[in-house]
Description:
Chain A is α/β, with parallel strands linked by helices. Chain A is built from 17 helices and 20 strands.
Amino acid sequence: MNLQSSANEPAIELVGIDKKFGAVHANKNINLSVGKGSIHGIIGENGAGKSTLMSILYGFYHADEGEIRIQGRPVSIRDSQAAIAAGIGMVHQHFMLVENFTVLENVMLGAEGGQLLAKGVAGARKELKRLETDYGLEVDPDALIEELPVGRQQRVEILKALYRGADILILDEPTGVLTPAEADHLFRILQVLRDQGKTIILITHKLREIMAITDTVSVMRRGEMVATRKTAETTVAELAELMVGRRVLLRVEKQEAKPGPVLLSVKNLIVKDGRGVTMVDDVSFDVRAGEIVGIAGVAGNGQSELLEALAGIRKPVSGEIFIDGKPVEAADPALLRQLGLAHIPEDRHHMGLVLKFEEYENSILGYHHDPRYGRGAMLDLDAIRRQAEEQIAKYDIRPPNAQLKTANFSGGNQQKIVVAREIERDPKMLLIGQPTRGVDIGAIEFIHRRIIEMRDTGKAVLLVSVELDEIRSLSDRILVMFAGKIVGEKPSDADEQTLGLMMAGIAA
Amino acid sequence: MEYFDTFVSILGSAIRLSIPLLFTALAGLFSERAGIFDIGLEGKMLASAFAAACAAYWTGNAWAGLGAGIMVAIIFSLLHGFASITNRGNQIVSGVALNFIAAGLTIVLGTAWFNQGGRTGQVPPEGRFSGIVLPGAEMMRDVPIIGPLYANVISGNNILTYIAFLMVPLSWWVLYRTRFGLRLRAVGENPGAVDTAGVSVVWLRYRALIVTGFLAGFAGTYLSIAQSAAFINNMSAGKGYIALAALIFAKWKPVPVMFACLLFGFLDAFANFMQGKSLPMIGEVPVQIFQALPYILTCILLAGFIGVARPPKAGGVAYTKER
Ligand SMILES: Nc1ncnc2c1ncn2[C@@H]1O[C@H](COP(=O)(O)OP(=O)(O)OP(=O)(O)O)[C@@H](O)[C@H]1O
Ligand SMILES: [Mg+2]
């Protein structure tokens, strides 16, 4: 299928790209052509092979077979240096920045312009200035990366690519970590870049973004390129169906909630972060059995710390937490789990999983004392594997192999491992942070359905998410958090505008 | 005046004792800033001390000794690189193994070649680095305060001492003012950033280890043919570990490394001076206390009492593209 994605001549052509990781066939005979000066979207389920394909194009992995043509000429991309020389730049899903370097040092790294730094610095400053005025990419060249917010860090990644003279820019899930405002800003930048003749490949799970900004879009499924469409001639529903291979409900249906007694109660909670800054400021609320309470807010307004305090990971400065009416004395995750509290942490890499463990080992993380998994000091590996395999089947975790190292699952499948572990424990209360970050729409539908089932069987669910759509479609009540305080409560049918203003701290 | 003379003599010996630490700590600085932990500094120092003594004994030329010392230290560095960069082995295990190899090999070869229970033959004076009297040292000697300091502390050291102090600004310059230094610091923090910038992580780390071997070679050479006149069994005596402590104490920065080494050298000299002497009121202080002080100070630092020591982020982990 060699559908030309634009009327222009192609900037990139991939012909018959094939890649296997051991038994996993990540890319199967992929053909793709991207027109010069266009924005081309790539969508696909978790593990479909999008990141792998782009890493091959950027010389990070080697294709087993296939040819890459850039501006019509076949090129051999052995390493990233060859990719850079061919005019390709990439913004990786996880940023590739040196955190204790300045912006300038990061931009210069690998393109210093001579053995001595002094020579290159003046030129680099000038070039940064030019890129800033041409594309509206402003950052302070002397700022340290670790002190910049993620949106700015991403801008540095784009600057790095442009500084090296990239004509083709690949962005792998760039909006996953951005606030809506930052994402809008990014898209404006991308449009300017396209208008100046750059070619852009954008990987995302958010179909709304595809519709808003791309010219053409390709769909991958299980390692294959299954379709390419002009964005103007397709719809969200069609794309979703192409991705998953069946019709998807973009918004799960749910019945009216039937709230029962209060299971989780928080009174005057104050929590500080590691630097001693008050992140949760005198917060009180209740969560009842059989309801989902959503906490909306722009990232960094205290939601993370609130969730950590409730999960027993962070000790609150003051305030009280009641479970089933009884006060919780100590910040002790094990104790809380015994009381029936499950926790899906916001960041699966830092808290939810041990990436070096095999899947089945992660499937009992934190529950290893459970008598089902062994007696005394010994683990019953057979029982654990059997159960892990059941979860893999039920949650459609791919590849279906309980003995695969967790790091080798794609992001969305890793998330499913965490969700399966916590939900299948049948807890009384569930704390959920960013349940669908980096997860494809098929899996989102599935996870959302499971969360609503939990509610309908009488669990108390507290949901924290920076995705307003997610909060609105799942929650029965929405609490809006801003600067550590809960600034108001709205029903689930509150309109986006009102919530958006509250999240920005403008209206209550 | 008598106190002052004592002080000057302790200071002089502090300088002499801190030189091997300084070379070794700077050596460790290059590999650790590139993300390769090097517990094998001790072994490199020992092996190069042995090689330097052998070469100097046979050729009667100190510079040949230095060349041999550097060569052997670089070979040890490359072995460490082969295990921990190419084969992605554990850096601590590889370093410890090299320490054992150095300790064993020097004894075996030394006994086989010289038959003096692990000692090498006595290196003749031409084969050693001896003190250089700086111009005016004799004339200055009678000037109060400055005179003795100049004549006994600053002047009269061997050439390696002056080279050691030159290496401090030079290391700083390489690290912070050259392309190599920028990439080296980057690869110790986030090798992924270096790789995606189109620079080879493997080759960069190997080059860092070659610099490490080069500097460690000076340290070993200093021990056997500048500070003494032969190789003696296990003559590094834990200096590689103290240098590592100094490196941590100095938070992996060249100029603080110099001060840390001077401090630890001073403690060592002071311990020697106190040997067998008793203090008024307290009595005799066990020298072990002074010998342990570098480690104790480093522990206090690591516990967060003197600022935070943040090691290079990617230190100790082999770089792989796979997740
Ligand atoms: N380095 C690797 N080693 C082994 N398997 C890998 C490796 N990289 C990717 N895979 C596997 O290849 C398949 C494709 O992964 P890839 O990361 O390309 O998916 P993706 O489409 O980017 O998914 P996501 O949307 O979750 O980011 C997955 O099954 C994954 O587990
Ligand atoms: Mg991906």
